[in-house]
UniProtKB/TrEMBL annotation, chain A:
Membrane topology reported for the UniProt record: Multi-pass membrane protein
Region (Disordered): 1-20
Organism of origin: Occultella gossypii
Protein name per its UniProtKB record: Sugar ABC transporter permease
Domain ABC transmembrane type-1: 88-301
Compartments in which it is found: Cell membrane
UniProtKB/TrEMBL annotation, chain B:
Species this protein is from: Occultella gossypii
Full protein name: Carbohydrate ABC transporter permease
Membrane topology: Multi-pass membrane protein
Family under the similarity heading: Belongs to the binding-protein-dependent transport system permease family.
Transmembrane spans: 47-69, 112-133, 145-170, 190-211, 290-311
Subcellular location: Cell membrane
Key words, A-Z: Cell membrane, Membrane, Transmembrane, Transmembrane helix, Transport
Pfam families assigned to the protein according to its UniProt record, in alphabetical order: BPD_transp_1 (PF00528)
Residues annotated as domain ABC transmembrane type-1: 108-311
CDD domains listed in its UniProt record: TM_PBP2
Keyword ATP-binding: no
Automatic annotation (TrEMBL), chain C:
Signal sequence range: 1-22
Keyword annotations of the record: Signal
Protein name listed in UniProt: Extracellular solute-binding protein
Pfam families: SBP_bac_1
Keyword Mitochondrion: no
Origin species: Occultella gossypii
Length: 310, 325, 425
């Protein structure tokens, strides 16, 4: 986070800055006061455990005996573990394929739903349904849809068109793509809602002014809508990346990382290492790597979406 | 078809009608003809859009519909080799059977309390922090925001052990001494369920993002008028992001409602368990009772869907009545 | 503001020191609550007995009978099998282990090794009609650390009509024989045997037993499946796939009927605990007329067949403050009546061989399992290192079955992981 993250618009307004030191100081105090409760809470309940985790990543800790310091051994183990690299790679594939597709679909849907059609709320609810449904249920439904035998919904459809049955989740070459489809389907709802809320937050005077200038709908979309959605796009991108790299429930219930590790992801590795192998030190090292990857990706996506938030 | 939800399109005709009172009759007629053809074209494209959205909605909702259809099937039907797509008989009693299999009343109450508390705490703490990070320049803002961002990236499984230890060794609670020894801390108490997730970094980030797109001029005007910082926040700025508030409320409620692993780990009493935990009763080693599981899941999801449907209206209305114009 | 910051620092300081203490003491402070002398609370952690009826069966049907009239009370913590790992690790790390825990096979060695489970006196077995085979998964370094409560037997069931149509009258007596039979009975578009709906790791360790192999040597200090038996077991699976009599793509999704129930498989290698759901879902298929059963035969002609068993075990925490009472409870739970209550609720196979109730005798799969306890020689575990490699087995086997790796490569990877895990024990 090297750049100034506070909104430039807010800062560059002369009145706020030039009203004299006392006002700025007073404001600063209030800023800290407003931010403090949440920050302290997160520092305590997330920050502290993370520090403990980072420390544990340099130890052997089986949760039963006291941790023993082991230097960077855990990180060396990870670097030489093909399954960990495979998991990392799967995460990247899921992110690179899944995120752009689901963001485009959700933006398109948000724009369409913003047209004020009748029955809007029903559409929105329908699109949002996957998000409110428990992942276990979602996984079981998709297991049935992907069921490799003749009783799977997709295979019924395929055989209707005279196409051969596919193995989907049972095939090492198709499983990851099948999982990505579910993540897209599951993720559209929330992204769309955020886009929608943000679309509705755009000052209508901008569009009215553009109307007076005789701008076309396409022009308005690219000149007003897209730039105004920049901050929220950054937000959605970052949260999608984070969400993607944290996919766990779905993998756990759909594939258990299989077949042959073809759908394993870092969180699943962390889970396995910690709670099936009881190697908490190694698992926390995996988490630290994940954290570093995500921080790097966040910085990159800030650059991609235009750096500053304004 | 009249516009109701797109303020831009309401305002434009309203303005022209005022002017048109002074226009001559023939010009008015010509305009009307032109408008009629334009609106016809628009009607067609709107119709196409509606059809498309219906298709999308059906695709999105299909697994949910299937979940519901499964919830009313008999177990013999589910396991028959050629299960009909539409249930041959509707076994509504699956719902009552499912309800009797676990104390779902208690579970639903617990989930509701967790969800409600987390909604309120996320709204209050999250909006305060989001506002400060978006609109107020203060020392520490940058590191705090970086910290919040980083906190979003921690997978739960990575910190579950330390977090559990914190609950268990809370000083002076549950018989513990100053060093957290001797008792059980917050283990198996409401505190363990409520405290750790009072505010999520994701929601702070969301609030910050919503506040960024609000006009700073309003804030400055309020300050010039001598409003206190608290008043500026509560009465001027916070109402501007009402749709955002509702988004966060919805997400926070949903997260609380769907909480699964944490309540299992930090409680041992049945009367502190939550609805998602109750559903595992249908998924035993000896086999999954698919129809009952789906009946239970449907019931667990319905409050969320109803709430979402309700928020839909608030979402739009709350926005139209807000100060952003 | 400074005050706030100081508060925060103080708060985090206290928590940090608490964490440090927790980590160092390993939760040595014990589970509190107990008051030494007469009376106290006995806590139980169980992945079984879920839901209203399960709770009623355990508490009203079993525990009340034991605790009534004593100074002791009980508290049950219900979890499910998929989350038992997390539940147990967090409670161990926090020093809040239940007095009595009901783990599965393969858990005993690692948790006994780490001192979480207490050794139990052999006298608990006195007069108990439990087959010695079932006790192998209850011992660690020869010492008893668990009692078998209920058991799952891994057996083969077959569709009699399909066998009759193929003219097969005798069940196979060795693995080669089975392979030939499967070629005859495979239905069009289906498989001869459903090898993959059940856990592939357990199927492999079952076949390992058929080849006379074990996962680890007697005292759990060395890998034993590397003597060729592990490879042979995996190769057998690959051979069936190559024959077209087994297919990785033909398997039942959770909550969906298994291929055997849909007439897509002639034989199903399954867990006896599936009986209740089979009788409910496809009652016509599991009658004595329609369904036959056999055990996976030995690889060698004339060898004994092999039944794989898993189970739910009763164990005692080494940190309990009332060891005598907990041991009494363990004994009590294995008495015929409480055990019958438990079996009635769970539909599983009782570890005792003398339960004559219709619940067991009319459960064909359970009855068959009980009759064959003498062949229950294959099971998982056998070393404290097992937990560590347990999760690595399935991906390697799947890689071999789907052609991503050769059988040798998969087995080599497993062997390396197992050696590595053993070196850390």
């Amino acid at each position: 986070m090297s750049t100034n993250t506070v909104d430039r618009q807010a800062l560059s307004k002369p009145p706020a800055r030039r009203r004299g030191a006392t006002l700025t100081q007073r404001q600063g105090r209030w800023g800290l006061l407003f931010a403090a409760p949440a920050t302290v809470h997160i520092a305590l309940w997330t920050g502290l455990p993370v520090i403990v985790s980072i420390i544990l990543s340099f130890t052997n800790y089986d949760m039963l005996n006291p941790p023993e310091f082991s230097g960077i051994e855990n990180y060396v183990t990870l670097a030489n573990d093909p399954v960990f690299w495979k998991a990392l790679g799967n995460n990247f594939i899921m992110a690179i394929v899944g995120i752009p597709i689901s963001m485009l679909i959700s933006l398109a849907l948000a724009v369409m739903l913003n047209q004020g059609l009748r029955g809007n709320s029903i559409f929105r609810t329908a699109v949002f349904l996957p998000h409110v449904t428990a992942t276990v249920a979602i996984a079981m439904i998709w297991l049935w849809i992907y069921s490799p035998g003749g009783n799977g919904l997709f295979n019924i459809v395929l055989s209707f068109f005279g196409l051969p049955n596919q193995a989907f989740l049972a095939s090492p070459s198709q499983a990851l793509a099948s999982v990505i489809l579910v993540t897209i389907w599951q993720g559209i709802g929330l992204k769309m809602m955020i886009y929608l809320a943000s679309l509705q937050g755009i000052d209508q005077q901008l569009y009215e002014a553009a109307d007076i200038d005789g701008a076309s709908a396409v022009q308005k979309f690219f000149r007003i809508t897209i730039p105004m959605l920049k901050p929220v796009t950054f937000f959605i991108l970052v949260t999608s990346i984070v969400g993607n790299f944290q996919t766990f429930d779905l993998i756990y219930n759909l594939t258990n990382g299989g077949p042959a590790n073809s759908t394993t992801v870092i969180t699943y590795q962390i889970y396995q290492t910690a709670f099936q192998q009881f190697r908490m030190g190694l698992a926390t090292a995996q988490s630290v790597v994940l954290l570093v990857v995500l921080v790097v990706l966040t910085i990159v996506s800030r650059k991609v979406t235009g750096g500053k938030d304004d | 078809m009249t516009d109701t939800a797109f303020p831009g399109t309401i305002d434009a005709p309203a303005g022209t009608e005022q002017q048109s009172a002074e226009l001559k009759a023939d010009r008015r007629q010509a305009r009307r003809a032109k408008q009629a053809s334009a609106s016809k074209q628009r009607r067609i494209s709107r119709f196409a859009l509606a059809i498309f959205l219906i298709v999308v909605s059906v695709v999105m909702a299909m697994p949910f519909v299937w979940m519901f259809l499964t919830s009313v099937r008999s177990s013999t039907e589910i396991y028959s080799a050629d299960m009909p797509l539409w249930p041959s008989e509707w076994h509504w009693e699956n719902f009552t059977v499912a309800l009797e299999r676990a104390p779902f009343g208690i579970y639903a109450r617990n989930s509701f309390i967790i969800a409600a508390v987390h909604t309120v705490s996320n709204l209050v703490l999250g909006s305060m922090a989001g506002y400060a990070l978006a609109k107020i320049r203060f020392r520490g803002a940058t590191p705090i925001f970086g910290f919040i961002l980083a906190s979003m990236m921690i997978p739960f499984y990575a910190i579950v052990i330390p977090e559990f230890l914190m609950i268990r060794f809370v000083p002076f609670a549950g018989g513990n001494d100053l060093f957290g020894q001797g008792g059980t801390g917050w283990y198996d108490t409401w505190w363990a369920l409520l405290i750790p997730a009072l505010v999520s970094p994701f929601n702070i980030f969301l609030f910050r993002q919503f506040f960024i797109s609000t006009p700073t001029e309003l804030m400055e005007a309020a300050r010039i008028d001598g409003a206190s910082e608290v008043r500026t926040f509560v009465q001027i700025m916070a109402p501007l992001i009402r749709p955002g508030m509702l988004t966060v409320a919805l997400l926070a409620f949903e997260a609380g409602w769907n909480n699964f692993l944490w309540p299992l780990l930090v409680t041992s009493s049945t009367n502190l368990r939550t609805i998602q935990l109750g559903l595992s009763v249908f998924r035993q080693e000896a086999g999954t009772e698919f129809n009952l599981l789906m009946a239970g899941t449907t019931m667990a999801a319905v409050p969320m869907i109803v709430m979402f449907f309700f928020f839909q209206k608030q979402f739009v209305n709350g926005f139209v009545g807000s100060g952003i114009k | 503001m400074t005050l706030r910051r100081r508060d925060f620092l103080a708060a985090s300081g206290v928590s940090l020191s608490a964490l440090a203490l927790a980590a160092c003491s390993g939760g040595g402070s014990g589970s509190g609550g107990g008051n030494g002398g007469g009376g106290g609370e006995i806590s139980l952690l169980t992945p079984e007995f879920a839901g209203t009826t399960g709770k009623a069966a355990l508490e009203e049907g079993i525990l009340d009978g034991f605790f009534e009239g004593t100074d002791f009370s009980y508290k049950v913590d219900y979890t499910d099998w998929t989350k038992l790992n997390e539940k147990l690790s967090t409670s161990v790390a926090g020093g809040l282990v239940a007095d009595m825990i009901m783990p599965g096979a393969g858990w005993v060695e690692p948790f006994a090794h780490k001192g979480v489970l207490a050794e139990l006196p052999e006298s608990l077995l006195d007069g108990l009609p439990v087959n010695e085979n079932l006790l192998s998964q209850c011992r660690y370094e020869g010492a008893l650390h668990a009692l078998p409560f209920f058991v799952d037997g891994r057996i083969c069931i077959y569709n009699k009509e399909m066998f009759d149509n193929a003219g097969i009258t005798e069940v196979p007596t060795n693995l080669d024989d089975l392979r030939e039979v499967l070629k005859e009975v495979t239905p069009a578009g289906g498989v001869g045997i459903d090898l993959f709906s059940s856990n592939i790791r357990q199927t492999w360790s079952h076949l390992l037993g058929c080849y006379g192999g074990t996962l680890f040597n007697e005292d759990g200090t060395e890998v034993a499946f590397t003597d060729g038996t592990g490879l042979a077991a995996l190769q057998y699976m690959l051979d069936l796939v190559a024959d077209g009599t087994a297919n990785f793509d033909v398997k039942g999704a959770e909550g969906q009927p298994r291929p055997w129930q849909q007439g897509q498989a002639a034989v199903d290698l399954l867990n006896s605990s599936l009986w209740p759901s089979f009788t409910e879902q496809s009652p016509d298929l599991v009658t004595e007329d329609a369904m036959g059963m056999f055990l996976l035969p030995s690889a060698e002609a004339g060898g004994d067949p092999v039944m794989w068993t898993g189970g739910t075990l009763l164990t005692m925490s080494s940190r309990t403050e009332n060891p005598e009472k907990v041991q009494e409870l363990l004994s009590y739970m294995l008495e015929a009546e409480p055990l019958l209550t438990a079996v009635t609720e769970s539909g599983k196979v009782p570890a005792r061989t003398d339960i004559d109730d219709p619940v067991v005798t009319e459960n064909l799969m359970a009855q068959y399992t009980v009759e064959n306890f003498g062949y229950a020689t294959a099971f998982e575990g056998g070393s404290p290192a097992w937990m560590e490699i347990r999760g690595l087995v399935a991906p390697e086997l799947e890689a071999a079955v789907t052609g991503q790796k050769t059988a040798e490569q998969a087995l080599d990877a497993l062997a390396a992981a197992a050696q590595d895990a053993l070196s850390r024990v």
